[in-house]
Amino acid sequence: MAILHGPADLTADLLTESLRASDALVAGEVVSFACTPIGTGQMGDAFRVSLDYAGDAAGAPATVVAKFATTDEGSRAAGLVLRAYEIEVNVYRTVAARLELRTPRCFHADVDPTTGWFTLLLEDMAPAVQGDQLAGLSAEQVEHAAVALAGLHGPCWRDPGLASLEWLNRHSEEVAALTAMLVSGLFPGFVERYGEQLTCDELDVTAHLMDRLVPYFTDRPGTMTVTHGDYRPDNFLLGDAGSPAPFTVVDWQTAAWGPPMPDVAYAVALGFADPAERALHEERIVRRYHEALVAHGVADLSWDDCWLGYRRGSFHNLVMTVAPAMLVERTARGDEMFLASLRRGVAQIRDLDALDLLP
Fold it and tell me: Are both 7-123 and 129-357 of the same fold?
């Protein structure tokens, strides 16, 4: 199947070809379909595709999800520079099958890394519902997400084959310096846009990190594994009526080879709408993650190192707020989301006394 730019490029023949190639359609063929926009992503556009078949299509999916690069030129250019589309397609191609974290079945994945255009055809997880970062999750849901995260980190722990994948293991001192220059260079514009809506302390803590981004990106103690990078409620599909299970994770555009604990700190900070509630449940949830990681066979991460890594990882939230806010298409919900993310992140950093841990 060719790389498509959007739903207008889909055809019944292309859908039939992809489903047959992935053994999701044994006989019969797609004769018509309809597309409905879904999701709240700003780097990609997703659609639910309802399928009509002719012939014997027993067992074939009634719907699939099609995901394409965003049509917003600025956001797509950012995705191309950050290699976001190439990364997501390669996760589905090479990593997803080995995880004990649930991801949608992939029927087709292709990308042109020179232009950023990509096509994903994925299992539709309906009636699961997308999490809402602004509303937050219950403590039970956040704990479930943290425990499920061990099913990503554990199976990939210290794997040399994964560490050798260039598109996944993108870290070097040069890349760290360039990334620090990019993010810190965006910070003045972030302050100009959002500064009046943030407290002096929130701005001061963020500025403190911006001044230390190079050593922060370079200092990577401990064991590495595959990380999601954007593990938050908007990228969770929760069970019907919002129950914690089944639980599916989507949007793998920031996956990388790196330290695991920023994923955990980010998920817990953004999972709770109320920082006071987060502080109440935080250590118990991180302990449950650590127990799950041990159950996946990880024996070289002590609880003390886990908690220290979690405290260090709390700064990931600020990086994942400042940079995306200034690189993707601006929307009203996006503004609200980025403000909430930074506020929750700073509250977590303060509660954890993490500032002294910056290199």
Answer: no
Burial of 91 (0-12, 13-18, 19+ CB in 10 A): buried
What top-level class would CATH report for the domain 7-123?
alpha beta
The sheet with strand 236-238 has its strands ordered as 129-130, 236-238, 248-249
Size of the chain in residues: 359
Label residue 103 exposed, middle or buried (CB < 10 Å: 0-12, 13-18, 19+). buried
- The whole-model pTM stands at 0.93
pLDDT for 328:
84
Residue 303 pLDDT > 90, yes or no? yes
Q: H or E element: which one contains 21? A: helix 12-21
Phi-psi region of 34 (alpha: psi -120 to 50; beta: other; left: phi over 0): beta
How is the beta sheet containing 106-111 ordered, strand by strand?
29-38, 44-54, 63-69, 118-123, 106-111
**Quick one: three-class SS letters along 272-283?**
CCCHHHHHHHHH
pLDDT tens digits for 123-182? 999 888 889 999 999 999 999 999 999 999 999 999 999 999 999 999 999 999 999 999
